[in-house]
C-alpha cells in the first residue's frame, strides 16, 4: 500500500502539468547539490556549493589542527545544511514554478506526482 501525500499541481503555459510534493524533500536531503541543479534552482545551488566549499575548508583546517571538536561542529553544520535543503527544497521549487509563469491548478492528496496530475486533469 502506497503512502498518500499532498501535492500542489501546476500547469505551464504550454499546457503540461507538474506536481510538487508539499513538505519534506528526500531527494533534496540525499542529493542536495545535484537535486538543486536538476530543479534549475540556480541561485540555491550556487549558495549550496559555496557554503559546502567553505565548510570543507573549515573542516580541513580543524583536521590539520587536530581539533576533533571543530571537525564535529563542522560535520553538524553540514548535516544541518542537508536537512535545511530537505525542509525548504519543495517550497523553493514551487516558488520557482510560480515565478516562471506556471499557474497553480490545485492541491490534492495522491500516492505519486502522476496520480496527483491525473486527479487534477480528471476534475477538468
Question: Can you put this structure into words, describing what you see?
Answer:
There is one protein chain. By secondary structure, the chain is α+β, with helices and mostly antiparallel strands. It has one domain. Helix content is 63%, strand content 16%. It contains 5 helices and 3 strands; from the N terminus they run ββααααβα. α2 runs antiparallel to α3 and α3 packs antiparallel against α4 (68-99). It starts with a strand and ends with a helix. The model has no long low-confidence stretch (mean pLDDT 94).
Rounded to the nearest angstrom, the radius of gyration is: 18 Å
Percent of residues in beta strands? 15-25%
Tell me, briefly, the overall form: elongated
Structural class: alpha+beta
Q: What is the terminal-to-terminal distance?
A: 27 Å
SSE pattern: EEHHHHEH
Short description:
It contains 5 helices and 3 strands; from the N terminus they run E-E-H-H-H-H-E-H. The chain has one domain (5-123). The protein has helices at residues 26-30, 32-38, 42-64, 68-99, 113-123; strands at residues 5-11, 17-21, 103-110.
Features:
3-stranded antiparallel β-sheet; 5 helices; 124 residues; alpha+beta; single chain; 63% helix
Topology:
Elements: E1 5-11, E2 17-21, H1 26-30, H2 32-38, H3 42-64, H4 68-99, E3 103-110, H5 113-123
Antiparallel strand pairs: 1-2, 1-3
